[in-house]
Write a structure and sequence with these properties.
Order of helices and strands: HHHHHH
Distance between the termini: 106 Å
Number of helices: 6
Strand content: under 5%
Shape: elongated
Number of strands: 0
Structural class: mainly alpha
């Protein structure tokens, strides 16, 4: 009797429950994009550096040429600023100093332009960068110093008499200040070039 009950009992069926999924995330499942390669960042950095160095090289030459032109104008205007009596530049130390520095600046910038064209065989790149950097700073200081010394005496003269002598003196001073600005920016570029030169 017990065997009959055991045989007639309902068979047990094992049913597995389906996995529970979050409906909020079921439609948003995406394959994450591959991580950017580190080589891409290195290449981009190199390209940016090349562009920056090319921009610096292109900007250095016009500044040097502009400084040469402004220095020459200052030199010529002051050299011909002789109108007799007290209106002769060589009677004033400040104007003689301005003229001397304008001549020196013209020679310096002309020499640098010559070295850039012909001096590649004469100077190593690092030595040339040191000369450009030091020379730009010294010459910029001298131009600013000479212009600053000539401004007070010119202002005093213009208060009493505004004539061609004072106008020429003012023009020469302005040209020296413009040459100073060009050399000051050129000194920054020369410093950047010097920092990129190898030490050996």
């Amino acid at each position: 009797m017990s065997n009959f009950k055991e045989n007639n009992s309902a068979p047990k069926i094992h049913v597995e429950a389906p996995p529970i999924t979050d409906p909020a995330n079921s439609g948003n499942h995406r394959t994450p994009p591959p991580a950017a390669s580190s080589n891409d960042g290195v290449v981009a950095g190199i390209l940016r550096r090349w562009k920056r160095e090319e921009l610096v090289k292109k900007g250095a030459l016009p500044l040097r040429v502009a400084a040469l032109i402004f220095s020459l104008i200052s030199f010529l205007v002051m050299a011909f600023n002789k109108h007799g009596d007290w209106r002769d530049f060589d009677k004033y130390d400040e104007y003689r100093y301005l003229l001397a520095i304008a001549i020196l600046s013209s020679l310096f910038n002309g020499g640098i332009l010559f070295l850039k064209e012909k001096g590649k065989q004469l100077l190593q790149p690092r030595m040339a960068a040191i000369i450009y950097f030091a020379g730009d700073q010294i010459m910029a200081y001298l131009l600013l110093s000479s212009a600053s010394s000539a401004i007070p005496i010119t202002n005093r003269m213009r208060e009493n008499s505004d004539n061609i002598f004072t106008d020429s003196s003012s023009t020469a001073i302005c040209m020296s200040i413009l040459a100073f600005i060009c050399l000051a920016v050129s000194a920054l570029i020369s410093g950047f070039k010097l920092s990129t030169q190898p030490y050996i």
